[in-house]
Amino acid sequence: MKKTLIKNGIFISNNETKTTINGCMVIEGDRITYIGEQTPAPQDNYNEIIDGTNKLYMPGLVNTHGHAAMSLLRGYGDDLALQIWLEEKMWPMEAKFSSQDVKWGTLLSIVEMIKGGTTTIVDMYDHMNEVAMAIEQSGMRGCLTRGVIGLCPPEIQDAKLKEATEFARNWHGKADGRITTMMSPHAPYTCPPDYIERIVQVAHDLNLPIHTHMSETSREVQANVDQYGLRPVAHLEKLGVFSRPTLVAHGVHVTDEEIEILKQYDVRISHNPGSNLKLASGVARVPELLRAGVKVSLGTDGAASNNNLDMFEEMRLAALIHKGVSGNPVAIPAAEALLMGTKMGAESIWLQDVGQLLPGMKADFIALDIDQPHFLPKTDFVSHIVYSASAKDVVDVCVDGNWIVRKGECLTLDEEKIKREFEQSFDKLLG
Amino acid sequence: MKKTLIKNGIFISNNETKTTINGCMVIEGDRITYIGEQTPAPQDNYNEIIDGTNKLYMPGLVNTHGHAAMSLLRGYGDDLALQIWLEEKMWPMEAKFSSQDVKWGTLLSIVEMIKGGTTTIVDMYDHMNEVAMAIEQSGMRGCLTRGVIGLCPPEIQDAKLKEATEFARNWHGKADGRITTMMSPHAPYTCPPDYIERIVQVAHDLNLPIHTHMSETSREVQANVDQYGLRPVAHLEKLGVFSRPTLVAHGVHVTDEEIEILKQYDVRISHNPGSNLKLASGVARVPELLRAGVKVSLGTDGAASNNNLDMFEEMRLAALIHKGVSGNPVAIPAAEALLMGTKMGAESIWLQDVGQLLPGMKADFIALDIDQPHFLPKTDFVSHIVYSASAKDVVDVCVDGNWIVRKGECLTLDEEKIKREFEQSFDKLLG
User: How cofactor binds (record note) (chains A, B) (predicted)?
Assistant: First the structure.
């Protein structure tokens, strides 16, 4: 089993009692086996000894909501009203996506994400076999789900559900366990109630969690009330969704009572601040959710509504906007934003051994080059990560004990080929 | 006179009729003399011909409010209530700053800013001779002012005003005209009215503009009403401040009536979204200000309240937060945010020949490496700059016709020495 020692580094462990450690870390196989100030003796049986001077090591970032292939639509129709953007720009182009388009769009996003320190993603899209193969090849971790929209004839509903079920069954636990799966009704407003109930039944049968969009816009909440007489939380509760472990994307417009129900069922929220701001969906009640004990993690959403996939920015936005909007300068401190981007992200998708640098945890971690002005003075590195760092500061990325990025270069994917194929896909879609 | 041709580039000119140009640009001495799709003949009399393939050229960023030396306080006491942060953290440390501390703090910030594409800054601080010398050495452009706080005995008021006056007189137009100066009462709440009037008189005598903080927090606005019976805008108007060309920092809490007065006097606002959010000051009424015809530019404020000095982030925040808070997805489009960070920034400090890439304009421009996933597909580069780019994408920086950064390296400053001296300054301040 390969054994690696990293010494002279600064480590942000996410350990509650002592987050910042100046010292060293040992990785054996896919696990961290030691982290501490002292170098463990003897030092003669390592396959590799890395000098971590001027590097900051931290858990890899966990992006809990996205549609990687939508990088194909980055900058395609920005700054439009939401309905025009969706109906005239996004949907017509997405309808043209082939599995090859999804492949190259997803791979381009994966290159951007892993080079930027994201080690785990949630991805909900179509042509998911391509997504799973891309994740497998990249070496990163993925919690994947075929999102189904049920506004279609029964036979198409059936076909989509069958496809989603097969995908979830076939890929769960694959790629050395780096891939897990979920079942996904796309949203309450895109799936009839009986279809949602059928999806929940499959999740029960396969013993899988559920991922869905919920309460992203106030308009959608009102439409739910108009159509079903219930706000989305009560509606999904009634349909049995929360009888399964559930991760909900957005949850922008929720009442105190709804927060209480989400807490009761331990429903996890993926907060997507960049996307919510850009699409003018509003500002989620994250401080209230966190205070109520709801697990809140962070997601970029697709690149069409963000427009980059930099999780440092999502942590920063989460730390900043809730202060500014609430008028409370301690609304979400840096340490909490960092947990949202790492440990709470992992917990939100039921990964118990990811998100901290501690013995026994998976070796999913990244290194930042801190020999740069914006990391000085060497005061509070948690603050520097959240308020000052960006994806471009990441130099090394390790997932499951394997290096997938080193010195800023992808080791598992051919970036140049991916960029070329991606551009060809986009040109074809336009043409 | 040195003559340079850049060919095969993509240029964001900020020209209203045609912003994006695929072609080339010619620089002669300190000016742009040509920009267009065709390469001007003949090509044999250039000192340098640059291949701009895979680069995006745009006007340098203009940061219209900051305190560069405050990088010494980056991460020192984050996530505290405003008064505790100021009274227990910022002020006691700042009181200890020597001119050498200001020198190294300012130089560190300048390294961060120029490498990140900022070519012009406004700086308001103490020990301004050090700041001016740092700007002169760096090759960047600076609009500088000694900010005076008047809550002190008359003889100290006199000494500060004398110092500010001498600084403004001595440095205006220096460094080949790259340095201009202003007069600055720090803020209405830190300067007695008669002291502000004396500063205004000096600005008249020297024919210089005024820069001040105004209406950053609602608490400060209320205190102004309580003490003087007027909100800050009327108060400053009454004291004659707006009889001089004026640039105001923040302007977060302004009424419709105040916006009208600001417009009437052509007062310019430096919007500092990152700082305003982090300090929980609120969200400025930028869409309303812009619609009323007020010039709004962007500033980072000091690194203690930001915490990096990345102007791409300020453009992105300006484009995002006003959408999210207003519920209007077209509140501030990308193109407007870009103008706020460049052309309107230059206009806000009365630089008429900076902020656009057009014949006759100063050669103040930057190049971004766009051969990266987050700049694909090649759809809308204005959108990519605002929603996707960051300081770390900048590779080349030219100011006044001189390269000050190339391939990501500072040519005018010794970055390694500056980092070392900065750390020593910080250690002494702590000790």
Answer: Binds 1 zinc ion per subunit.
